[in-house]
């Protein structure tokens, strides 16, 4: 993006206007996330900066809402539920999705396009439609208001992410590496653990992370399919926003931003590791 | 050269090569299918069958046929020209008496009430007083409730005693059956859904356009910076993408509400008066701002992956051939990015028309989407047939767009993060 030395005055001007414009758009993207972090340390029960906060007066800040969060049984129970449901759904989706991806990348897979479109559809169909449909069907087979019902529903929603990432990893997998390992004297078991697994794992793990975050962040289906027993964290937030707006929600939001930074970093590290193993990038 | 027809090529164990190859292909095809089958079976139960159940619900009409079996049978060959005869009234009296004892009339009464108002009280009121009514039933029932003396009542019962109905779909597009059985528009003050569908579509179009306007420059910048810098800036796009939807919606509430951050800042710097704070949330503006922010990464990522493949030498060539910057952009660069615009545009539009959470939290009355009415009929009014019909129409729109997306881009080209 560097300006060439022959750029005219107008071009220079436009270049800086363009950069300024982009900076504003980046601010629009990231600003809202930055605003809530200080707001969550508010000492008063308001959703905005108080006068004390604006003057950087320490008394305007407190950990009051974090304390509220970590001592509330409703919030802690909802986190426990979110993890139970999220982890079960992720495991199920990852196992089913990875096995299916092995078949989908086979050269002789019949009707690949059609099957792929079907497997991706839970990602495309609006959540409210899936939620209503699952409610109708699950109530018929007595799965509503059970953990199993919510887990099955979230597995279905997570599957497209696993299928997409794992198929992408597998289709870029160089099968000559297996032959190379054999010719260098490795037996199939050793080849699998030393060559195949390290190359495929990053794709599977990032698929699993996508599936987990999908379940962990999902409101609509839980709203329809679950009962009071399976209250998850998003549901707790949802009713918090609708009923009594308390800055506890901002504290939760800040913690969740922290979680997404953690996930993003993990994914980036996995991607780099994958590239390095494949010899795509040095270092 | 040997003649291949008389001396077919064989494998080591003497099987013709063609047969052996065919067998190998068949085996590997079977293996691929076997690997996919557990997932297909799972999705069939957890996703496909629920969708089928929903489509079924949108036409399923069991209430009248189950609650009024004798009446339905007696009405089967009624011509609808004049009031039915005594036999039908007697059948109705028997059905109502049986239903009143079994307390099984409520659903049917509500179902008929969707079609013709007043039917609920006609059915329930008559059922309460049916015991001890002596034949002839025709004058007796009309004396209890005058509705039984109306042709329209009987036409509704006859029409709705069929096990399938299109009335939910008609209601979902603001239509109904007239007393004569024709399809007519509902009175203007009751028209809701067509307007809501249009509002959902045009607001989604506005959101798609805004994400394109904001996403295009950012994607261009990211695609043309050296990788070291662009990776860093990419985090600014991916972090909101990875952050909980509820968190992002909450932040917009904190920022936009009338006692919120943005209004406070504008009051503090004297841009607006304290009593003239802007109403930016719980209306269309709120929905559009929040959803543009939430969906922006879905536009940037496909645009970026297309722009990344355009060699910078093309623009340099255009410039060296004498094209002014704007002309070179318009005639060379922009056309090359159209696949990215199509991918991002369809993706954002599909996601937008199906959004429920954000419009429900920041949309207020005027910024609601059709999805909010699906939820309303599922949870509050409990008119599940209508909810299923609205959802089915929306599903059809999404499927058509999805097929278009698949044709244009290919679903296996979708990249995540």
Quaternary state reads heterodimer
Placed side by side, the strands forming the largest sheet of chain B appear as 1-2
What is the approximate shape of chain B? Answer: flat
CATH architecture of the largest domain in chain B: Orthogonal Bundle
The number of distinct helices of chain A, counting runs of at least 4 residues, comes to: 12
Number of helices of chain B: 19
In the CATH scheme, what's the topology name of the largest domain in chain B?
MetI-like fold
Q: Could you name the CATH homologous superfamily of the largest domain in chain A? A: MetI-like
Q: Report the uncertain regions of chain A.
A: none
Number of strands of chain B: 2
What is the 3D shape of chain A?
globular
Radius of gyration of chain A: 24 Å
CATH topology label of the largest domain in chain A: MetI-like fold
Helix content percent band of chain A: over 70%
Quote the beta fraction of chain A: under 5%
Instruction: Classify the beta-strand content of chain B into a percent band.
Output: under 5%
Q: Return the average pLDDT of chain A rounded to an integer.
A: 87
Structural class of chain A: mainly alpha
Question: Which key terms come to mind for this protein?
Answer:
heterodimer, A: 283 residues, mainly alpha, MetI-like fold, 2 domains, 12 helices, B: 417 residues, 3 domains, two-stranded antiparallel sheet, 2 strands, 68% helix
């Amino acid at each position: 993006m560097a300006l060439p030395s022959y750029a005219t005055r107008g071009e220079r001007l436009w270049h800086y206007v363009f950069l300024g414009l982009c900076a504003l758009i980046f601010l629009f993207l990231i600003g809202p996330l930055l605003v809530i972090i200080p707001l969550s340390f508010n000492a008063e029960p308001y959703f905005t900066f108080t006068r004390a906060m604006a003057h950087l007066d320490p008394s305007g800040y407190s950990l009051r809402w974090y304390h509220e969060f970590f001592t509330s049984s409703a919030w802690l129970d909802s986190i426990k539920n979110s993890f139970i449901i999220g982890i079960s759904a992720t495991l199920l989706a990852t196992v089913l999705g990875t096995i299916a991806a092995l078949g989908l990348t086979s050269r002789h897979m019949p009707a690949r396009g059609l099957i792929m479109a079907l497997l991706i559809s839970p990602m495309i169909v609006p959540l409210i439609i899936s939620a209503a449909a699952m409610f109708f069907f699950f109530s018929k087979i007595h799965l509503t208001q059970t953990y199993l019902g919510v887990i099955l529903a979230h597995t279905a929603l997570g599957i497209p992410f696993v299928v997409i990432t794992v198929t992408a990893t597998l289709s870029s997998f160089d099968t000559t590496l297996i032959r190379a390992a054999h010719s260098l004297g490795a037996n199939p078991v050793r080849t699998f653990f030393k060559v195949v697994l390290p190359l495929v794992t990053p794709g599977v793990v990032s698929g699993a992370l996508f599936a987990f975050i999908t379940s962990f962040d999902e409101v609509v289906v839980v709203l329809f399919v679950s009962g009071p027993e399976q209250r998850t964290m998003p549901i707790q937030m949802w009713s918090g926003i609708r009923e009594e707006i308390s800055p506890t929600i901002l504290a939760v939001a800040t913690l969740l931003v922290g979680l997404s930074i953690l996930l993003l970093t993990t994914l980036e590290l996995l991607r780099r590791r994958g590239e390095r193993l494949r010899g795509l990038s040095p270092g | 050269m040997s003649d291949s027809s008389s001396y077919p090529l064989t494998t080591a164990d003497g099987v013709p090569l063609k047969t052996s190859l065919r067998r190998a292909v068949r085996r590997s095809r079977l293996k691929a299918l076997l690997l996919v089958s557990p997932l297909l079976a799972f999705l069939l139960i957890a996703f496909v069958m629920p969708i089928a159940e929903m489509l079924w619900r949108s036409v399923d009409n069991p209430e009248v046929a189950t609650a009024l079996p004798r009446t339905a049978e007696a009405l089967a060959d009624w011509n609808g020209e004049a009031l039915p005869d005594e036999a039908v009234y007697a059948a109705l009296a028997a059905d109502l008496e049986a239903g009143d004892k079994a307390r099984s009339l409520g659903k049917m009464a509500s179902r008929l009430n969707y079609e013709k108002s007043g039917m609920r009280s006609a059915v329930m009121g008559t059922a309460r007083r049916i015991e001890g009514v002596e034949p002839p039933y025709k004058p007796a029932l009309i004396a209890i409730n005058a509705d039984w003396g109306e042709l329209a009542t009987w036409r509704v019962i006859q029409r709705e005693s069929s096990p399938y109905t299109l009335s939910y779909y008609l209601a979902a597009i603001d239509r109904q059956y007239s007393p004569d059985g024709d399809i007519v528009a509902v009175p203007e003050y009751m028209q809701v859904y067509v307007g809501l569908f249009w509002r959902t579509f045009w607001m989604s179009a506005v959101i798609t356009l805004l994400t394109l306007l904001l996403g295009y420059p950012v994607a261009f910048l990211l695609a043309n910076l050296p990788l070291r810098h662009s990776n860093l800036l990419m985090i600014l796009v991916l972090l909101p993408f990875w952050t909980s939807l509820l968190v992002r919606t909450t932040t917009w509430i904190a920022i936009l509400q009338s006692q919120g951050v943005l209004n406070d800042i504008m009051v503090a710097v004297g841009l607006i008066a304290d009593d003239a704070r802007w109403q930016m949330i719980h209306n269309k503006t709120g929905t559009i701002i929040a959803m543009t922010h939430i969906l922006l990464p879905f536009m940037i990522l496909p645009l970026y992956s297309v722009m990344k493949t355009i060699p910078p030498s093309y623009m340099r060539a255009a410039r060296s051939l004498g094209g002014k910057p704007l002309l070179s952009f318009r005639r060379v660069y922009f056309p090359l990015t159209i696949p990215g615009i199509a991918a991002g545009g369809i993706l954002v539009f599909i996601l937008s028309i199906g959004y429920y959470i954000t419009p429900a939290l920041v949309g207020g009355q005027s910024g609601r989407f059709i999805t909010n009415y699906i939820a309303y009929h599922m949870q509050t009014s409990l008119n599940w047939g209508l909810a299923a019909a609205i959802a089915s129409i929306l599903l059809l729109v999404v499927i058509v767009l999805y097929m278009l997306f698949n044709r244009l881009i290919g679903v296996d080209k979708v990249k995540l993060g």
